[in-house]
Amino acid sequence: MVGDELTTRAPLDGFSRDLEDRQIPAFRALREVGLITSKVVPEEDYNFNEIEGRGYTFFHDRYAEFELASVYTGSSLGRIDRDVASDTATLSQIVATIEQLLRRALNFPVLSGALDHWFEMNFNARENKGDVAVLLPLFNLMSLSESGSVRSKASMVLAGFASRGTASPSGVFREVLASGERSLQIDLATAMVSLRRTLR
């Protein structure tokens, strides 16, 4: 089976050539077939100069994130729609749960990734139709949290929507500038600068 895959799939042509010499590093093979993915992250050297570092994630982390996001939608955090977004007490409870999850994510990063997917699932939900305004009351409340990780998550999720094309960047900024808390406006600007450095 592996031999057939190597000889019939164009992206694996390099492996079929290397296979003759039996010099394919396992790590390279896993990256090439997508079982390990990488991304550039900003770092600083000992002299505080900005450098690029590289982070790696295993494919199963993403599947776990999607599965956990479904749990969040069902029983842990629930769905966000216009009715929920207009209920400050419910939103406050959701923000408190998000804070707990982010605290636990220090030891289990997959929980934070699942939160990102949960936000995106709510944004793309049929009843919300990709309208940033529906989720903005939640982001506003998060931006007022005493927890730095909660405030950061709010701005980074919005920045991610804009940078990945999940939402129109102009739409995100227009909505945040029109109806966002001042703290969210500032944090979003900071997040976009940070994200731009990461994607360079």
Could you explain the architecture of this structure?
The protein is mainly α and 200 residues long. The protein folds into 2 domains: 2-56, no CATH class; 60-199. The chain has 11 helices and 2 strands; from the N terminus they run αααββαααααααα. It has helices at 2-8, 13-21, 26-32, 59-76, 82-85, 88-104, 110-124, 132-143, 148-164, 169-179, 182-199, and strands spanning 36-44, 50-58. A two-stranded antiparallel sheet has the order 1-2. It starts with a helix and ends with a helix.
Strand-helix topology:
Layout: H1 2-8, H2 13-21, H3 26-32, E1 36-44, E2 50-58, H4 59-76, H5 82-85, H6 88-104, H7 110-124, H8 132-143, H9 148-164, H10 169-179, H11 182-199
Antiparallel strand pairs: 1-2
Helix pairs in contact: 4-7, 6-8, 8-9, 9-11
Taken in chain order, the helices and strands follow as: HHHEEHHHHHHHH
Largest sheet descriptor? 2 strands, antiparallel
**How many structural domains?**
2
Strands, total number: 2
Proportion of beta-strand residues: 5-15%
Give me the side-by-side strand order of the main sheet: 1-2
Give the quaternary arrangement of the chains. Answer: single chain
The outline comes out as globular
Mean pLDDT: 81
Enumerate how many helices there are, as a single number. Answer: 11
Helix content: 55-70%
State the end-to-end distance: 39 Å
Regions with little confidence, pLDDT below 50 for 5+ residues = 1-7
Cα-based radius of gyration, to the nearest Å: 20 Å
Structural class, by secondary structure, is mainly alpha
